[in-house]
Amino acid sequence: MTLERWLDEADRVLIAAGAGLSAAAGYDYSDAERFAELFPVLHEKGLWARYQLIGLPLPPRLLWGYWSVHVDDIRFGEEPNPVYTRLRDLVGTRDHFVLTSNVDGLFERNGFDAERVWTPQGDYGRYQCETPCTRETWPSRPIIEAALATYDAATGEATAVPSCPRCGGEVFLNVHKGPEYVPDHYLPAGQRLRDWLDDGVLVIEIGAGYSTPGVIRSPVESVVRALPGARLVRINTAHAEVPEDLAGRALSVRADVAEVLA
């Protein structure tokens, strides 16, 4: 199999992952059944999937009722995930790095070194001032746990609405949703990745489509173009096509990553 051969020949491996990887691992933002189970009040209001809540304005108590349950479910679980653990086993002892648009922390929770994971879109594990009044960001687990402690499933609301420790204003999770995003916490990892990249790298891109192509898909194509000895494996159920100019150095795998890893 070409993927296995390229892995054997690679000096280093860059895992580049989009939302499709987490969806394959069971964290699907379009899962209507799971949404109805976790968010009955919002379901009664006509909503049916988590992706509909991205950027949706809600009253503060309902907003933090939703986000506390969502983040607790998707970011702070302790159980290992079989898809991510298989991916970690595939990489093995090879020199590797991770670039991901996912903000769920699943790489570091499944054996990948947090120092070698760059999440340019942020992380549910942190929060920031919405103004922002400061470039500082803070761990989000305390505010998520506080909101959950006051969460009422009958109303969908949490009464413990967090505020900025500096100015007392509104806060939100430290994820890229607009110009207020503060990326500073993640910049060092981005620099480490740039310093680490080398001509012999094998890029394994998983589940990165066209919703935000400028975060994963386009950058990794540029990396492979810039490094004559680099190769790209693109694993995607719907958008596995590879650029014609990378012929011979790019492999299209139109399949679910869970099946590929199995």
UniProtKB/TrEMBL annotation:
InterPro entries the record matches: DHS-like_NAD/FAD-binding_dom, NAD-dep_sirtuin_deacylases, Sirtuin_cat_small_dom_sf, Ssirtuin_cat_dom
Gene3D superfamilies for this protein: SIR2/SIRT2 'Small Domain (3.30.1600.10), TPP-binding domain (3.40.50.1220)
Superkingdom of the source species: Bacteria
Annotated positions binding Zn(2+): 129, 133, 164, 167
Domain named Deacetylase sirtuin-type: residues: 1-262
Protein's UniProt keywords contain Ligase: no
Protein keywords: Metal-binding, NAD, Transferase, Zinc
Stated name of the protein: Deacetylase sirtuin-type domain-containing protein
Organism of provenance: Lentzea kristufekii
